[in-house]
Model the fold of this input.
Amino acid sequence: MYHLTFNNIYFEFNRRQLLKFRKHITEIEPDIWEKSHSSIKGSRKIPIQTLHENLYLIFNKQELKELNSLLAINTHFKQQLISIEDIDYPLILN
Done:
């Protein structure tokens, strides 16, 4: 059993489900979803459907990238250092 916590979402997968979910996430094209949902208010415009027809998980491009990084377990994925501009958070210097 695999347990994955991302932001406020908790997943439980068996090995087959984890590999299938990872494949699905890597195949999502965020630019297409952001363009097709451009009229939606807010920054999260990339939906991931769940088994419940009325429940979707929504992400922004940065969150999807982070989820992809997290799911890159045991792959040859190199994590790059981020700059201060990459952090979407108000910075207050005292």
Notes: Residues 15-27 form the longest helix (13 residues). Residues 19 and 76 are 16 Å apart (CA to CA). The mean pLDDT is 84.
